[in-house]
Design goal:
Elements (H helix, E strand, L loop, with lengths): L3 H9 L4 H11 L17 H18 L12 H11 L5 E2 L21 E2 L2 H17 L12 H18 L29
Antiparallel strand pairs: 1-2
Helix pairs in contact: 1-3, 3-5, 5-6
Main location: nucleus
GO molecular function: DNA binding
Organism: Gossypium raimondii (Peruvian cotton)
């Protein structure tokens, strides 16, 4: 069974023992042939998190009884993984019977469960979706891109918004005013005399 710490690492994005082990494998030590070996540039925070998430998901599949091969993974396995991660969440989500249901800032404590925030799950799925294809998966068979996953995330978003009294507002895309005036191909503005 997967240790609680590994689940927490992916849920929280922390850098615990599993992340150190992954870093040790990725970074490598020395090399055969000595000589002028160059280290690859360090991974960005996003790339590091994506790798950590991918390794944790792979470990989750291996810990299933019976173990699930990545080639056999489907949207149901992804949904089970998301539900599994819920136990490591830090976001208070009030139940319908709670007196604080729908209040953004409740005046006191309650026994409602802590869950993964919708935004964290959405970002996780985005990273895993990219990692799947980077690791040889075909876009048309990507379980992270399944309609069932999108529906699940939408339901989590809507239920958390109601329970926490915080309406979800879609971010509007900013328009770039320079695109309409891109006449010159130089990077220096032409000054009028």
């Amino acid at each position: 069974m997967m240790s609680i710490n590994k689940g927490k690492e992916i849920a929280e994005g922390s850098s615990g023992p599993a992340a150190v082990a992954v870093g040790a494998v990725v970074g490598g030590v020395g090399g055969v042939g000595g000589g002028d070996q160059r280290n690859p540039p360090p991974l960005s925070r996003y790339e590091s998190q994506k790798r950590r998430d991918w390794n944790t998901f792979g470990q989750y599949l291996r810990n299933q009884r019976p173990p699930v091969a990545l080639s056999q993974c489907n949207a149901n396995h992804v949904l089970e993984f998301l539900r599994y991660l819920d136990q490591f969440g830090k976001t208070k989500v009030h139940l319908q019977g709670c007196v604080f249901f729908g209040q953004p800032e409740p005046p006191g404590p309650c026994t409602c469960p802590l869950r993964q925030a919708w935004g964290s799950l959405d970002a996780l799925i985005g990273r895993l979706r990219a990692a799947y294809e980077e690791n040889g998966g075909l876009p048309e068979t990507n379980p992270f891109a399944s309609g069932a996953i999108r529906i699940y995330l939408r339901e989590v978003r809507d239920s958390q918004a109601k329970a926490r009294g915080i309406p979800y507002k879609k971010k509007k895309k900013k328009r770039n005013p320079l695109k309409a005036t891109e006449v010159s191909s130089t990077s220096f503005p032409i000054q009028q005399p």
